Amino acid sequence: MAGNLNLNHYWPTRTEQTYKLKPTTTKHELQVLLYGKHPQPTLTQLDEVNRMVASSLARERFTTLYGIKPNDPRADPKAFNHIENQIIREHSHKSKWQQEVSSQLQWEHIGAKWEKLDEAGKLTKEYAEESFDLYLEWKKGGKHLLNFSSELLTMLAKTDTANVPIESLLTTYHSNFYLSLRDLDVSLFDSVISKVDGVFTIRTSFREELDTPQMESNSASSEGIKLIFVGDFLPLTLKYGSLFETTSDVPFFSFDLKLTPQLGRLTVDDSLKELLTDFIGYIALTLLLPHDLQDELTIAYQRMTKELIPCVINAILYTSQHIEKPVHRLPIDLPGQLEKKLRTAKTKHQRQNALAEIGQAGFKSIEFFGEQYIGSLTKSAAMDIAITPHWRRGHWRNQPVGIGLQDRRLLWIKPTIVGKDAGLPIGGQLHTAKPLLSQNKDAQ
Are 125 and 32 in contact (CB under 8 A)? Predict the structure, then answer.
């Protein structure tokens, strides 16, 4: 199999697979799985919740009718009670009203369950919910799955991002997408199983404080990309999560890459150095962590900012510069009957129906890059030469183009293996890939 075309067809990450969720699963259904469903309410409880929800709606209606709030001294309590009882009569038999009541009871049930959890239990539940929220955001953004061949991913990991203007990242292939990184075989910590599966990239904006020439504080909007790395990170969450406010704040999972040229931020490397500097100051001055723990976390953070994030940046640049057109493939775990229906479709209408059925089953086509590089990094016959095999790193050239060479375009200068005939470089990940399954060629 080339690359990671066996990405799970429902979920990019492992957390949702753990709970065996369906592609139509809602946040409410996940919470029922995590905390159980609230018990059937008594008539007294139902009446209390009915009154609570009705009071909220009654306050809005009272303010609209009389121009004052119910707690205003001029307000007539009898008038408010009349509106409240009227709302209860109007909505008590409506399904939407019943759903609101059920939702309120579920929140109370979750709160009661939450209070009984120990710290590890709370971190586990929080980790599952925040991971699911990531999925929902990715799903809302179009469910784009990107996959690179092992060889192309390795070459991008061996490409420097120095001197790449940060504005170059503002034009991305997709606003939001998930990129598989399993083939890089990178762990955050050597002592903990913390392999990185992939990364969600989300276009966003930030507010940051600027100092004006008059030394007055001033805020400005900064465009950027949020990178959220995923994997089997629950052990890390249990180990370090208590140090931070929420599991999403654990800093080696989530990174805000600011791309607006300000505060001396001109290149991608400037943004990466800013991330590292801010993190070191945060754990030392804000969290006041012991020195040994600071060193442990800093090593992991450096690994992200110097190895993984540059690779992701290069992947974004590779797609946005339109170096190649992606091939759309279906996951190899597509059920046989669905694959056969697509393969044997003879008309456009039959093909559209087959693809629609595949989509309804939760399968998503994967945009695959780098097929041309498959097998390009395999070892060739050894020769008697004095040079030791090593990587010559690639880089991006800001190439002048257009009339009068006034415009600029990034040109990828690929990394190469020097002395390849004598073997492969020591260190770094090299992968071979099997030919793509023929069934995947039917995907659109």
Answer: no
Nearest of 298, 306, 297 to residue 268 by alpha carbon:
306
Distance CA 164, CA 268 (A): 6
C-alpha separations of 324 from 22, 115, 318, 371, 372 in Å: 33, 53, 8, 10, 9
**Residue 414 corresponds to which tokens in the numbers above?**
């690929």
61-103: per-residue pLDDT in tens?
899 989 899 888 888 989 988 888 888 777 665 555 566 667 7
Instruction: Tell me the pLDDT of the chain averaged across its residues.
Output: 77
* Residues 6 or more apart in contact with residue 306 via CB below 8 angstroms: 272
What values do phi and psi take at 129, rounded to 5?
Answer: -70, -40
Encode pLDDT of 315-374 as tens digits.
999 998 888 889 888 777 677 888 888 889 889 898 888 888 887 777 777 888 998 888
pTM (2 d.p.): 0.74
Q: Map out the domains of the chain as residue ranges.
A: 43-115, 141-320
Asked if residues 416 and 151 have their Cβ atoms less than 8 Å apart, the reply is no
| Angstrom distances, CA of residue 86 to CA of 10, 57, 60, 411 | 45, 11, 13, 69
Question: Tokens in use for 382?
Answer: 């050894």
Determine the longest span between alpha carbons in the chain, in angstroms. Answer: 99
